[in-house]
Design a protein that fits this description.
The structure holds 2 protein chains of 2 kinds. Chain A has 10 helices and 6 strands, in the order ααββαααααββαββαα. Chain A is mainly alpha-helical. In chain A, helix 2 (45-56) packs across helix 6. Chain B is mainly alpha-helical. The radius of gyration of chain B is 21 Å and the shape is globular. The chains are: A mainly alpha, B mainly alpha.
């Protein structure tokens, strides 16, 4: 096999460059492995079990996770810090029922029922919490606002302006709030545009916003029983002043005729 | 009146026939998948999105792998100057491989993933092992054929190295890991080191082989080109892997490693396109096999669009921060797979059909009938329109859901029109595939 001279030279480049590149890549791979094992949050048994449930159900061919996967359903990287455990638990218990009501309009992307056991759901939540705590270099966009390394922090230090808080917390994704400066049309939670008529009081609303799961069904707006579980708890994301200002604002909302 | 020299080269056509059928099936499942964007939860209970999508992307890999195996055998035998070591092994390998493919597809309907439900490598371990067996039979057959071959050929050495690389890089996707980051890290070895290293090397070999055959370029002149292309691919591609490690919990230096080497990854497709065009211009004799010529040149231009333009434009980490996890990456994936691989394999298959039937016959029944031209234009136009729709969808997704901060599905509601465009143009592409499949089987049935 006599190669022409120039081909021989190119062959030399090919061999030596490949060897160097492979060596560098393997070196970086070892370094990355120890980084992932030591610096990232530990994989507990529950997280590992959740990882298995995640793979057994091929979640990744509808959802993305860490941005990898399919683009049919929402990215799951920060789902726990964004939506709260209660929401994720409620969805996983009966996916078709909950996801059918999540969005207004006729267009419904429904999640199939995966028939998960309570144990499966607990493990999955542990897994997704672990994913949310990974240091993902600031991805996905906007995640820094809600949490940094999974730990919730006040959304906007200093600001107690309720309108900017409502926008930051994206309350409108679930609630309809029609008032000056706000025009949202969410249908998952009750319409808040005329909240003053419900006569809740500021203290009750502080409790509702801070920790919705603590509200008994008997106190929930009619037709929304059980759905308080879907709402994330905001007490860790807001200072006391912010919470109070938000509750006061919502308590005073009145529909203008 | 076949014009190829060795009887055992015939084995390649069985692989090509299987690949054409699976290609057809792949597009049907692709249409079923995109239809669920337009009419969500249409088949929620028996074929949810993740099932049809898994099948769509798995069939893609299966049919392309079949085309690669067939083409490898075809070139190997000719270059070695002797018959294949065993056509029986080759047929057995084909059967096992197809059984693994069909088995995997059926298993998805029963949600059987066995801990492997990861994009692109969804097949449960039992099917993984079947594929490994088929791959090892392939390697064994190649090695035995090369052993004491009358002709020593650099092309065969490169084929062998590429094949070993392909098989080795299948293995990291097989084990199950407790740690998702570790698993995702290794999953990319399979995907990236196939499409951006070993498969790209196959692509180079097939393009080079077709240039030699179609334009009557002396083989010796292409050797340098093969080595330089391989050099460019591996020098950039091995560390270009970093572009999959930006956001998955790995160390931050990958952003720089991945971004810089990805820029160089844009070069090999450009070189292929320029060389293809130069050789086509310079060719002393006019290429007779128009279908192969069109698919070859179309493929190299398309891979420039798909790999260099679409891939290159999303790969720098600060841009990728916004593009990652959107339909823009799907646009890159579609264009790149279609042009860099599908088009080149189709070119090779048209070339081999001519060799099987003789130039005269082929001209009368295939080239002059123009079905190949319909296939070529419908597939290419359909693909470009689909890809444009995906780019628009991705940009809408970024602006509505990431910049304006609306929910994921809230953004999708605004995009239904473009999903409809994707769905309709998918049928344009499908029509092209029908022409191609029909052409293939007409040529196969024709008397030799």
């Amino acid at each position: 096999m006599e190669l022409p001279k120039d081909a021989k030279r190119a062959k030399g480049w090919l061999i030596w460059t490949s060897v160097v590149m492979i060596a560098v890549f393997l070196g970086l791979t070892f370094q990355s492995y120890f980084y992932v094992v030591k610096k990232e949050p530990k994989v507990t048994n529950a997280v590992a079990a959740g990882n298995r449930v995640f793979h057994d159900n091929n979640c990744m061919d509808c959802h993305t996770i860490l941005g990898d996967g399919s683009y049919y359903a929402a990215d799951l990287t920060k789902v726990i810090s964004k939506r709260g455990q209660g929401f994720v638990r409620a969805v996983l218990k009966d996916p078709p029922k909950i996801t059918r009501d999540l969005w207004p309009g006729k267009y419904k992307r429904v999640m199939p029922n995966l028939h998960l056991t309570n144990q499966n759901i607990n493990d999955l939540i542990a897994f997704l919490t672990w994913i949310g705590e990974l240091d993902t270099n600031g991805w996905p966009p906007g995640s820094k606002v809600l949490s940094s390394k999974g730990k919730a922090k006040p959304v906007q230090e200093g600001t107690t302006s309720p309108i900017s808080l409502i926008k930051k917390l994206n309350c409108g994704a679930c609630h309809t709030i029609q008032t000056e400066g706000l025009n949202t049309a969410g249908v998952i939670g009750p319409n808040l545009s005329n909240e003053s008529a419900r006569k809740r009081g500021v203290a009750w609303l502080v409790k509702q916003i801070g920790n919705p799961a603590a509200i008994p069904d008997s106190e929930v707006a009619k037709g929304y029983e059980g759905k308080q579980m879907l709402m994330p708890a905001f007490k860790n994301q807001l200072t006391t002043d912010q919470l109070k200002s938000l509750a006061t604002f919502i308590n005073n909302l009145k529909e203008e005729k | 009146m076949r014009t190829f020299t060795f009887r055992s080269q015939k084995v390649a056509y069985y692989y090509f026939a299987a690949s054409v059928l699976l290609f057809l099936l792949q597009i049907i499942f692709g249409l079923a998948t995109v239809s669920q964007y337009v009419w969500p939860s249409l088949a929620l209970n028996w074929m949810p999105f993740n099932v049809s999508r898994s099948i769509h992307i798995n069939l893609l890999i299966f049919w392309m792998f079949l085309a690669i195996m067939g083409a490898t055998y075809y070139i190997l035998i000719e270059e070695a100057g002797k018959e294949l070591f065993s056509t029986k092994i080759a047929m057995f390998q084909l059967i096992i491989f197809c059984a693994a493919g069909v088995g995997a597809i059926v298993s998805y309907f029963f949600h059987y993933y066995d801990g492997q439900g990861l994009e692109y490598v969804e097949a449960a371990p039992v099917f993984d092992w079947m594929i490994v067996v088929a791959a090892l039979l392939w390697l064994y057959n190649i090695l035995k054929t090369l052993h004491k071959a009358p002709k020593k050929s650099p092309i065969n050495m490169l084929l062998l190295i590429t094949t070993i690389g392909t098989i080795l890089m299948y293995l990291p996707g097989m084990p199950y890991f407790r740690n998702f980051v570790v698993q995702d890290y290794l999953r990319w070895w399979v995907i990236h080191y196939w499409v951006e290293a070993t498969w790209e090397m196959y692509e180079t070999l097939f393009i080079g082989y077709l240039i030699i055959k179609l334009f009557k370029v002396p083989k010796e002149r292409m050797y340098r080109w093969f080595y330089i292309e391989f050099f460019l691919i591996l020098a950039s591609g091995i560390l270009g892997m970093g572009h999959h490690y930006f956001w998955i919990g790995t160390p931050h230096y990958w952003t720089w490693v991945g971004s810089i080497f990805s820029v160089f990854e844009a070069i090999p497709p450009v070189a292929m396109m320029i060389d293809g065009l130069i050789y086509a211009r310079k060719a002393k004799t006019r290429a007779n096999n128009l279908p192969a010529l069109y698919w070859l040149i179309g493929g190299t231009i398309g891979s420039f669009i798909g790999l260099t333009i679409l891939g290159g434009s999303i790969t720098w980490f600060s841009v990728n921060y916004w593009m990652h996890g959107t339909e823009v990456t799907a646009a890159h994936g579609h264009m790149a797979f279609f042009s860099a691989f599908a088009a080149i394999f189709i070119a090779f298959i048209y070339y081999s059909l001519e060799q099987r039937k003789g130039e005269e016959n082929f001209k009368d029944t295939i080239t002059d009938k123009q079905r190949w031209a319909w296939a070529f234009w419908l597939m290419n136009i359909g693909m470009i329109m689909m890809v444009l729709a995906m780019v628009v969808l991705g940009l809408m997704q970024i602006s509505i859901s990431r910049v304006a901060g609306q929910g994921y599905i809230a953004a999708q509601v605004h995009e239904i029109g473009w999903f409809a465009v994707w769905f309709v143009t998918g049928f344009v592409f499908f029509a092209g595939v029908l022409f191609y499949a029909y052409d293939f089987f007409v040529a196969m049935k024709m008397k030799e």
